[in-house]
Design goal:
This protein has 457 residues and is mainly alpha-helical. Helix content is 67%, strand content 4%. It has a domain of 202 residues. A hairpin with a 4-residue loop joins β3 and β4. The two termini are 41 Å apart.
Length: 457
């Protein structure tokens, strides 16, 4: 086995090796805190630099060009419209760093679309992602149950600090080598999409088994993160099962089960975005033989910030307050009297002077966060880019010329829609796995278009 891997590595190009290394390093998110940029720079970004300089050399030689980049117009439109947000920015350097982060991920999309130039390389990258994510899921699940059984934490799990004195089994959350459980969930979301795709590989039973194994284990690991992002994963699972062309009793059962799961989780995620469902206090009156249930329906802290985001959009509708400026400007829209009861559920001893706790919070909604920071112009540019991605996947799905191609396009569409649902309460524009998913989906369609054009000629 090791000999085969060694021989394979020797045969592939340097570019492909760097792409594999990039995929391997994406999950390693616990990095040192750096001045100005914090933990925004990851180990994988070092590999990106080598890929960029290689691509730049190819570009200067005339071997690569922007004309072959799919969806370049909506992507560039979004990036240009974001620039206008600098007009109201109070901190040019911070806004520039945030914008550089978006440019970097757009650059990742462009590089992948230029360097992944064959279906063979494309499938190799999918397999590499699946193998890495399988290791992440296996070690994470193992670490979680070791922590549950032993009663001691380890470096792959964390507490849910917002549930107070709840049972430890409830507050334990799987983080793996990510900084936050939600980051792991979004990575696993992408992995589930790639797992379904790998399972469709023709004439490769081992690949199919690996793909389904990735789907199952990544889904279990995602549940153990205990984040609202599981709602988007459930939505993706339902859509993927709906796109499966085979009709048998097992597929139908899974389809209906996934629909119920998605519906319950989506409704729960929306409710949790507005209120704290926990704690629930059950009181029993022995004399009257009655039981009463009391729910705490105060707005949860993140929803209060959603209200402030909408207020910023109202006051700065066109270009927003600047990328990365929500944290600095939200203080003008949040009053202690409005947030006191909600925050004291989490921090009983919190005082008005502790402004860094209840005012220094990142946007927890992609749509409202981008709307507040870049205005309706930037939000419109981003939604236009997302819409073009949906159209790209949907058109391929509707073709029905090749069953595998249509299904894979449907899987990408399902994954993307799941991410868009999670974007209601998570800011994911700078999530590497999200952009990798977009790039690989668009590249797949582009490669198949070029293949058919070549055959026609």
């Amino acid at each position: 086995m090791l000999h085969q891997v060694s021989e394979f590595i020797k045969k592939i190009s340097l570019t492909e090796k760097l792409l594999y290394l990039y995929i391997i390093l994406i999950p390693v998110m616990r990095v040192p805190y750096l001045p100005f940029v914090g933990q925004k720079i990851q180990y994988s970004d070092i590999v990106f630099l080598f890929l960029f300089f290689y691509w730049l050399g190819q570009f200067l030689k005339g071997k690569k060009d922007f004309l072959s980049v799919p969806l370049k117009f909506p992507l560039i439109s979004m990036l240009v419209l974001f620039i206008f947000s600098f007009l109201h920015s109070e901190h040019f350097l911070k806004s520039s760093i945030e914008y550089a982060g978006v440019l970097y991920l757009a650059g990742l999309y462009i590089l992948l679309s230029q360097l992944v130039d064959s279906q063979k390389v494309w499938w190799h990258l999918v397999k590499c992602w699946c193998v890495v994510s399988l290791l992440i899921a296996l070690t994470g699940i193992g670490a979680y149950f070791i922590s549950v059984i032993s009663g001691h934490h380890n470096f792959l799990v964390a507490d849910h600090e917002f549930l107070g004195n709840a049972n430890q089994h409830l507050v334990l959350r799987l983080t793996s080598i990510f900084r936050h459980p939600a980051m792991l969930t979004m990575y696993l979301h992408t992995s589930i999409v790639f797992g379904f795709i790998l399972a469709t590989e023709k004439k490769n039973s081992k690949g199919s088994f690996l793909g389904y194994l990735v789907v199952v284990l990544c889904f279990i690991a995602a549940i153990l993160t205990k984040t609202r992002c599981n709602a988007g994963i459930a939505l993706t699972l339902f859509w993927v099962l709906a796109f499966i062309p085979k009709e048998n009793i097992y597929i139908l059962i899974l389809r209906y089960m996934s629909f119920i799961c998605a519906l319950v989780l989506m409704v729960s995620a929306i409710l949790l975005t507005v209120w704290w469902i926990l704690p629930i206090e059950v009181r029993r009156n022995v004399e009257r033989q009655t039981v009463s249930i009391e729910l705490n329906v105060l707005y949860q802290p993140y929803f209060i910030h959603h209200i402030s985001e909408m207020a910023i959009i109202r006051d700065f509708p066109l270009v927003g307050v600047g990328l990365g400026m929500y944290n600095r400007r939200q203080g003008d829209y949040i009053r202690w009297d409005d947030v006191k009861k909600s925050y004291q559920q989490i921090y009983p001893n919190l005082q008005e002077k502790d402004k860094n706790v209840y005012k220094a919070v990142d946007p927890h909604s992609l749509y409202l966060g981008i709307g507040a920071e870049t205005g309706l112009l930037g939000l419109g540019g981003m939604l236009f880019f997302f819409w073009q991605i949906i159209v790209c996947f949907f058109r391929k799905l509707r073709e029905k010329v090749d069953a595998q191609e249509s299904y894979i396009s449907g899987v990408f569409l399902a994954g993307f829609v799941g991410f868009l649902f999670n974007a209601l309460y998570v800011d994911m524009l700078t999530v590497r796995s999200f952009w990798f998913l977009i790039a690989m989906g668009v590249i797949y369609i582009s490669l198949n278009i070029h293949k058919k054009t070549a055959l026609a000629e």
